[in-house]
Amino acid sequence: MMKAFKTVWMCKWAALLTLVIEWLILLPAFVLLMKFGNQYVVADINATPIGSPEFLAVFFGAMKSSDGFSLGLMSFALLLPILLLTKLALTAGLTAQMQTGNVRLVGWFSDAGRLFWPALGLFLRWLVVPLVLVGMMALVTMLLPDEWTWVKAGLLLFGWLLSLSWFMHALNINVQRERLSLWRGGKSLFKNFVTVLGFMLIFALLLALCGGMNLLLGEHNLDASSGMWLGYVFSFLVALLVRFVVIYWQAVHVHWWQKTA
Amino acid sequence: MLPRLCALLSIGLMLLQSAYASPLRSPGPFSERVHQTQIDATLDTDTHRVNAQMTLVWTNTSVQTLTNMPFHLYLNAFAHTQTTFIQESNGGQLRNDAREGDDQDNFGYVLVTALSDASGNDLMPNWKMDDDIADLTLPAPLAPGESVTLNFSFVSQLPKVYARSGHNGDTFNFVAQWFPKPGVFFNGQWNNHRYHANSEYFADFGNYDVRLTAPSEFVVGATGVLVEKTEQDGNTTHHYMAEDVHDFVWVADSKFGEASTEYEGITIRLLYQPPLDEESVQNQLDAAAATFRWFHEHVGYYPHSTMTLVQPPEDADGASGMEYPTLVTTITNLDKSPFQEMAAMVTIHEVGHNYWQGIMASNEFEESWLDEGINSYTEGRIMAESFGQPYAFHIGPLNVSMPYGHHLATMGARVTDPVNTPSWEYATTGAYGLNSYSKPATILATAERIWGVEKMDRVLKGYYQAFAFKHPTTQDFLSVAATVDEDMAKFLDNALNTLQTIDLRAYRMSSDKADSRGGFDLTSDPANPTFTAPEETDSWQHSVTLLREGELMVPGVNVNLVYADGHVETRYWQMTPDKAWEKWQWRTDSELVEVLVDPQFSVLLDGNFANNNKITGENSKQAWRWVQSMFISMQSAVSLLLAW
């Protein structure tokens, strides 16, 4: 685990840079929504608390009357897939760099570009994995009593995390050589199964922590008395925390790959 | 002697049955009881077919002598692909359900196989059937006050359900609109429309005495009250009686679970699809009880002693969310949800129909808003005031209440027809839905917010008291509103009967440092007036222009004027029909930073709330609150969900 932490620290600039890239991708939508949001959606926050029926009425009114605001929402929807694909490429590039034990920014971007298509191919093939694993968990939940809500949610989360781990195992093989990477990733996952289970508990806790931080951030921003700059600082910190958690997940998988390779 | 004894025994038996269970909570009659209908029906659960005999005693309550009598044969709307219903509904569609295919199973009919009068004379030659309507030439003219007795034998074949009536191909049988049903002699003429895609029904009040036979393992629910159950050869006959109702439906399913509760003499019975957890069952019973509680306080008395809630199975969604007297169907998924109240909301809506349609019985073919629109309005109020759930949907900080849900639907739609339009004459099915449900609900909610809930309650109560069991029209509703408030009635009239719209705007706003008075002093030396240059003072000069677009009038609304020092001043914008704008100019010691027209959002009919406010540049930077939250939440969700 300490080795993984060291790798995470080694990738600290990558975490920051990923964040900057993500925000740059979303920037056009952000600018449009801020400009037209300020023009059409902002009303006395005491009369239209954010999320209230009154706020939604104003929000949808703006969608009807402002082409600029609608364009902002549309561009946000269009930029999300671009964001997703960029993150995939950067993840593949970073995995390749982590495997070398020496993360260099130039190498990272170069690997990201080189490995984009293989990683995308792996991702598309991988989609069947959660379909099967989460599907199986969903079947199991049907056998459980209705009131076991948390157990059911836990089982579905377990299926999903197992699928994600499978992807990361496969990605470690994929960045070396694409052939049979999904299959070999699965084999690697089940070789490390017990360790993976233990780590998944830690990761689930980190996910809960990040989710909680996001909720706190949301509550802070919705509060009429809170200030804008503090909101931006909190947003940056939460986003950075999320990046470190994600890189930690990737680093652990790289170390498992190094052990079994 | 023997016939007398039999008659006495029969009367005794009837009294005994009345003592066992009565369809009414207090002695009737509440309506004219135009007909007395006896039916003896047997359901074949394999073929989903009903064989029945019906004796109809129909009384001419009009002042005219009648020579003919039209009937509805609603199930024939599903008989073939050229019926009005199927043609108008794009081959057989209703709401989210559609005819599954061209197999025989998907078609249905009701066929009269024998018809005679009280003396046994064959009337089949007088019976002219035309798809889903029929006309009977009466054997003799029927004078005012006279009755005619008609004996029918008929067969009802249920279709696979996609539009209210039918079966699911398995054990669920929803037997609605299944018997020959007389039209209504209304305003001096027969009213007997075909079954249209965009319409429900119109019928006269009467009493029903019905025996329903089905295999004993089937649980049966029906309009009215169960007075007797007898079993023979594996079949059970359920004897139901209903009084002062305008329809009779029944349901049979061997898979039903049952639960019930009592509310002030009303037995609320839930027939559900097991398994269903206790909390969800209780939620349904509570929703129905909350509806009665609200109506008793705000509208009037529910005279019937029963209310049956029926949950159709998932593969019979077409039967869901429908109202009949004393029996309604819920949605198919009754699981109580932590974030949306759809299961309770639909039940509240359908039980509410037992007032606006079950008791008022307006003409839904021609004025559907009188039922659906008023009911959609009261449903929102029941959710908030009586069921303790103001939101139909609530997740995190995101909340949608019923009035705003209807507002969003209304302002998002094109205005093509007046609300009060016959159901088949709307431009589109969407226009029928909007003008029957959301728009009238928004109109009534606007009236409530402008003239006050107390006045709106007086309208609803007055409408019930004056027109219960009397088939009221839009004009009747408006006449009651006029007795409460002339201006409100005028607003309702324009909003319901015309295409008039309203959009309030904060059109212009400025707030600048005010100068002191400067220039020439004309009262000084005329040969050489003194001149003083204007100087900037500490006070601010404000100018605000408000605009009313559209022809629809409301008396006025509040306007919030927010100053830089945090002070909020509320002014009233009094509107007049001959002036679409209002301009205010004044001075204060603080800068004006925001104008918000109608801060209480009273005019829910306002076409666009986004133009109700103006904010100066310095203060219009609040969008970050939700834009930033939205971006970070989405970014985090993508990162955490995929661990990339």
TrEMBL record, chain A:
- Enumerate the transmembrane spans: 12-34, 69-94, 115-144, 150-171, 192-217, 229-249
Q: Which UniProt keywords apply?
A: Membrane, Transmembrane, Transmembrane helix
> In its UniProt entry, what is this protein called?
Membrane domain of glycerophosphoryl diester phosphodiesterase
Which species is listed as the source? Pseudobowmanella zhangzhouensis
UniProtKB/TrEMBL annotation, chain B:
**Class in the EC hierarchy, top level:** hydrolase
> Which positions fall inside the Peptidase M1 membrane alanine aminopeptidase domain?
285-492
Query: Keywords assigned by UniProt?
Result: Aminopeptidase, Hydrolase, Protease, Signal
Entry GO MF terms: aminopeptidase activity
CDD domains with a match to the protein in the record: M1_APN_like
Q: Which InterPro entries match?
A: M1_LTA4H (IPR034015), Peptidase_M1_dom (IPR014782), Peptidase_M4/M1_CTD_sf (IPR027268)
Q: Name one Pfam family in it.
A: Peptidase_M1
Keyword Cell membrane carried by entry: no
Going by the entry's taxonomy, the superkingdom of the source organism is recorded as Bacteria
Q: What is this protein called?
A: M1 family metallopeptidase
Which region is the signal sequence? Answer: 1-21
Enzyme Commission designation: 3.4.11.-
